[in-house]
Amino acid sequence: MDARFAARAVACVVAALATLTVLTTATVRGTVLDPGFHASVLDEEHAYDRLYNEVLVDPRAAPLTRDLLAGLAVPEAQVTSNIKLVLPPETVRDLTLEQIQAVVGYLNGTRGSLDLTVDLRPVLAHLDDLAQTYFGDLVAGVQRSPEPDFERFTADLSDALRELSAGRAPEGIPALPLTEEQADRVADALLSAVAENERGALRPEVETALADGDVATALAAVAPAALSEHTRGAVAQLRQLVDDGTWDLGAALRESGNDLDTLHDVRPYTAVGLGLVEGLAAALLVASLAVLWWAGSPQPGRRLTRLGVPLVAGGLLTLLAVGAARLSADGRLVDPPASWPPSLARLVDDVQGTAVDRLTATAVVAALVPVAVGVLLVAAGLRLRAERARTAPSRRFLGAGLGAAAVAVAGMVALPPLISPGGPRVCQGSAKLCDRRYDEVAYLTSHNAMSTTVDRFIGPLQDPGITAQLDDGVRALQIDTYRWERPDEIAGRLSDSDFTPAQQALVRSAVNAINPPRDGLWLCHAVCRAGAVELVAALRGIGDWMRAHPTDVVTFIVQDAISGEDTAKAFAEAGLDDLVHTPDPDPARPWPTLGDMIDSGRRLVVFAEQADGPAPWYRNFYRYGMETPFAFRSPGDMNCVAHRGGDDKRLFLLNHFITIDGGSRLDAGTVNTRRFVLDRARRCERERGRPVTFVAVDYATIGDARGAVAVLNAERRTPAP
Asked: Whole-angstrom Cα distance, residue 366 to residue 14?
């Protein structure tokens, strides 16, 4: 009898410890050793966007940035203002994922060696494109009148090339009709400033430009290669960093004192030992549970109780271990050095905090499996004992007990990788929004999204193009559709527009000169002479962006000066018919969830200010939504009173921009701050009794309206009424 008791006691302890071991190893395998886990943590914290919007603009990071850019022919401001062209977010993400795959693959044994090399060829190619664009801009518009003296022409050309090679705009570009012989001589002179091994690739472009009398293009082509000695030294330093377009990150880490010995030391345990320990622990767990089943009293109630107790104990031990580890680490794995810029330290803290939270959640949920199974077994056993069931154990009880044990073991092994957020479902950039209804979510909205600096609009209200705005977090676009106006229509449109007198004069001067009439459908801001983007081409670009981002929902609010029929034809021509969402005919009915819209593929919502159809997906906004006024002249004037759409709609448009004879970039620096947006949005939600849906801003890249929208979405815990 004593021997049986001892056997049961040992088996119980072994089962509890084996449960703890299985849960621990399975959790590590499903989180730390899963590349998707690390990738999803970075995505959840918007790490790539924050790198641009917070870290690179941090004043503490400026000295390092200037050191990295020192000596380049393209000025620092040109590189930093175009950083997303030189190093696009998707490129940073791809490069980061490559390193995650390399490290995790080495640790889990799927890769035999640790190879941390970064392919910088895409970055260098983007930098070359920027240099070409920059030098092209330097020579644009400074062409001089023709010089009859060829010698004077070549001398001035040499002066211009020297200025460009130093990264400065020349005072002017000489111009002269060249004979074929003179063009050859000029080409030879220009290319002599370039390294001999680069001349062959540049000669065709230079000769073609000179043959057409386009001296500016010839200079722009040669200038990036004709760098000053100072610039060549900077480029040489960059080339020392890379080898055939690749950067050995491992070597760089070792040189900086951050060796990789720890990874090499733990690999035998993670690649081989972890699997062996997990398999051995699972086998011991099954064996100990079998001993507990057969040893001792044959009564079914006692047998079920003996199986349940160690499972509960093992799960509770795991929960205690998780809690102790969490408290000891205080939610942090590393402490960023004090020398780091504050923005980078915050990013690292947020990323590791999210990683620890997810790892903890995975371990807790996994530990609850044996606890739940064990509690059920104990409860069943106690009930049988209470009923004094003394019959011999039947196959039914045998199957039930062993089946429950098998479920517990299988759940502990398989569940952590399944519940680990290595690849969570993401909607609108967040796993928390998939179950939220469309009308319960806040969206960053760009007012007059088509009126951009990059598209050379007069009085632009946004800086990047439309798809770049989507890259920057905008998810609703206010756009204006037009046909090109006739000269006799311009005066009326200008008088009704928000252009300043100076801007109106500029538009009038452009009539039939700089900007002659064009057929077709366009995106314009009041007057197409002040800037225009072809409608179908813009829609096609948005469609391409949406197909490349299949988990995002986008909304149009169209100020429509063309018919609904023409709009529907434009959407069909752009290939958007498979993306548009048809709202419920009853505006009072709740909207579907973002997850449902994404699953259906119908995730482009299109509203009009005037039209209502005829396409069923093209609905009048003010049937479904309401808004605030939009003609505020100072931040202090902003209020929440009802404007178009009344005050009882499910969708709520917050017009959040200042208009003083046009958009106010300076005021955007105030009203687009996170605190200002949040204070007004919360005030308007209280006054209007509905959550804000669209936060419409000018200059969406100024301030942190995107961060405010994220806070609004994070605060919303309960469905809208």
From this structure: 19
Residues above pLDDT 70, as percent of the chain = 70
**Strand intervals (E) in 610-657:** 618-620, 625-627, 651-655
**415 phi/psi in degrees, rounded to 5:** -70, -45
Instruction: Quote the pLDDT of residue 575.
Output: 92
Cis, bond preceding 614 (omega within 30 deg of 0): yes
Annotate 403-462 with DSSP letters as a single string: HHHHHHHHHHHHHHHHHSTTS---BTTBTTSTTSBGGGS-EEEETTTT-BTTTT-SS-SB
Nearest-angstrom CA–CA distance, 672 and 320? 45
Quick: pLDDT tens for 381-428.
777 767 654 444 444 554 555 555 555 555 555 555 555 545 557 899
Of 675, 706, 668, 676, whose CA–CA distance to 462 is shortest? 668
Separation of alpha carbons 65 and 80, rounded Å: 9
Burial of 534 (0-12, 13-18, 19+ CB in 10 A): middle
Distance in angstroms (rounded) separating the CA atoms of residues 135 and 140: 9
pTM, two decimal places: 0.52
Q: What is the DSSP string of 520-533?
A: SEEEEESEEEEEEE
Q: What Å distances lie between residue 25 and 31, 417, 421, CA to CA?
A: 10, 11, 16
Token pair for 663: 């958009």
pLDDT averaged per 10 residues, the chain (length 721): 74 85 86 86 80 65 56 50 58 80 83 75 59 49 51 72 66 71 78 77 80 73 59 48 59 62 79 82 85 73 79 87 80 69 81 86 87 81 65 50 54 53 71 92 96 82 92 94 72 61 61 60 83 92 92 95 94 94 94 94 95 95 94 90 91 92 78 92 94 94 89 74 43
Separation of alpha carbons 44 and 423, rounded Å: 11
> Please, are residues 213 and 178 in contact by the beta-carbon 8 Å criterion?
yes
Coil, helix or strand for 641?
A: coil
User: Could you give the CA distance from residue 689 to residue 675 in angstroms, rounded to a whole number?
Assistant: 21
Q: 331 is written with which tokens?
A: 């939610």
Q: Which helix (H) or strand (E) holds 148?
A: none
Do 713 and 702 meet the contact criterion of CB atoms below 8 Å apart?
no
Radius of gyration of the chain (CA): 33
Q: How many residues does the chain have?
A: 721
Provide the pLDDT for residue 172.
Answer: 67
Distance CA 596, CA 602 (A): 9
* Structural domains present in the chain: 2-33+277-419 (no CATH), 132-234 (no CATH), 438-715 (3.20.20.190)
Given the structure tokens 């790892």, which residue do they identify?
Answer: 359
- Distance between CA atoms of residues 15 and 286, nearest Å: 8
Give the three-class secondary structure for 107.
Answer: helix
User: What is the distance between the alpha carbons of residues 166 and 228, in angstroms, rounded to a whole number?
Assistant: 6
The separation between CA 379 and the C-alpha centre of its own chain, rounded to angstroms, equals 49
Give the pairing of strands 521-525 and 476-483.
antiparallel
Contacts of 319-325 spanning 24+ positions with Cβ under 8 A: 319/364, 319/367, 319/371, 321/20, 321/24, 322/360, 322/363, 322/364, 322/367
Residue pair 522/485 in contact by the 8 Å Cβ criterion = no
Cα(226)–Cα(210) distance, integer angstroms = 18
For residues 79 and 86, the answer to whether their CB atoms sit within 8 Å is yes
> Where do runs of H (alpha helix) occur along 228-299?
229-241, 249-255, 261-267, 274-294
Place of tokens 């020297």: 162
If one counts every other C-beta atom within 10 angstroms of the C-beta of residue 459, the result is: 22
Residue 704 φ then ψ, to 5°: -140, 50
C-alpha to C-alpha distances, 582 to 25, 138, 491, 709, nearest whole angstrom: 48, 49, 38, 25
Pairing status of strand 651-655 against strand 694-697: parallel
**Which residue's structure tokens are 């889990």?**
108
